[in-house]
Design goal:
Elements lengths: L1 E5 L4 H12 L3 E6 L6 H7 L5 E5 L14 E4 L6 H4 L3 H22 L2 E7 L26 H21 L3 E6 L2 E2 L10 H10 L4 E4 L5 E3 L1 E2 H12 L7 E3 L4 E3 H11 L6 E4 L14 H7 L7 H14 L1
Parallel strand pairs: 1-2, 1-4, 2-3, 4-5, 5-6, 6-11, 7-10, 8-13
Antiparallel strand pairs: 9-12
Helix pairs in contact: 1-7, 4-5, 6-8, 6-10
Bound molecules: uridine-5'-diphosphate.
Length: 308
């Protein structure tokens, strides 16, 4: 197939392109390289079936030839990117997704859009099932991302109803692995970089907040299956094994053989207290569940951070 991947310079976008190329597809990668990394594009470009287009998705999209699939990863996604890029995030989640939908309507391509666990906000239902509507502060520091992604889901739902474009939607939960940006600001890149340089590990609050971490290869397998499934409802893709952030910090220190100490620092406003995907739908409609154990995934990621 000929497939367009937006956000190809980013962490998950890179791995999606890599998988599609290994599966024998022709891939056009699009990115404005605002939060993505140019070395990812350089590595993908070594494959003759990959073509890079530098483009801002909020501008109208004109690409030659036909496409059968569009995978949309274009959006800054780390909490540290939210503050300086509020309007960029809202623009790409609204105008950007609208441009992609128009493009899919013209080309007949099926869109796989990546939404997020952030649509559940600071959840009052735990674990989170797809039929939970969430608890989001519309004017808080994370609202550009949370509400942007919620708007994109509403837009896709309406556009599909009005124009019959084929769409799939995934809600991605915390995902990690090689090629995460070192300065990404998220817990794992921070903890690993700090551990490898024996610097203090900055745990926010008392570290009792929880997350559930999915290794990148499991995430990509779920996305690949969803794109080819008949399921038009949103599907959670993530690892349901929940852990406190303090426990994650301790595990990273131990696995990296680090002398770092854990420092408790102030916790950001509206930081979700708990997060765990209910993946019953993914199990049922995709026959998917994660297979990589946390210790294994953490070790592989630490090795990559050591080497890179
Ligand atoms: N966190 C932390 N120290 C850091 C970065 C993040 O304790 O240096 C916490 C953060 O407050 C949150 C959790 O780790 O409770 C996961 O944060 P991350 O930025 O990785 O992703 P999020 O799940 O919030 O999108």
């Amino acid at each position: 197939m000929r497939i367009l991947v937006t956000g190809c310079a980013g962490f998950i976008g890179f791995h999606m392109c890599d998988r599609l190329l290994r599966d024998g597809h022709e891939v056009v990668g699009l990115d404005n390289v605002s939060t993505g990394q140019r070395p990812n594009v350089v590595d993908l470009s070594k494959n003759p079936r990959f073509q890079f287009v530098e483009h801002d998705l909020t501008q109208p999209l004109a690409l030659d030839g036909s496409f059968e699939r569009v995978f949309n990863f274009a959006c800054p996604a780390s909490p540290v990117d939210f503050d300086p890029r509020r309007l960029d995030i809202l623009a790409v989640c609204s105008r950007g997704v609208w441009n992609l939908l128009d493009f899919c309507k013209r080309s007949g391509a099926r869109l796989l859009h990546t939404s997020t666990s952030e649509v559940y906000g600071d959840p009052k239902v735990h674990p989170q099932r797809e039929d939970y509507w969430g608890n989001v502060n519309p004017i808080g520091p994370r609202s550009c991302y949370d509400e942007g992604k919620r708007f994109a889901e509403a837009l896709i739902t309406a556009y599909r109803a009005m124009h019959g474009v084929e769409t799939r939607m995934v809600r991605i939960f915390n995902t990690y692995g090689p090629r995460m940006r070192r300065d990404d600001g998220r817990a794992l890149p921070n903890f690993i970089s700090q551990a490898l340089t024996n610097q203090p590990i900055t745990v926010h609050g008392d570290g009792s907040q929880t997350r559930s971490f999915c290794y990148i290869s499991d995430q990509i397998e779920g996305l690949t299956r969803l794109a080819e499934s008949d399921c038009t409802d949103p599907v959670n893709i993530g690892n349901p094994v929940e852990v406190t952030i303090l426990q994650v910090a301790r595990e990273i220190v131990q696995l990296a053989n680090s002398r770092s100490e854990i420092h408790l620092v102030p916790r950001p406003q509206d930081d979700p207290t708990v997060r765990q995907p209910d993946i019953s739908r993914a199990r049922k409609v995709l026959g998917w569940s994660p297979v990589v154990e946390r210790t294994d995934g953490f070790c592989r990621t630490i090795e990559w951070f050591r080497g890179g």
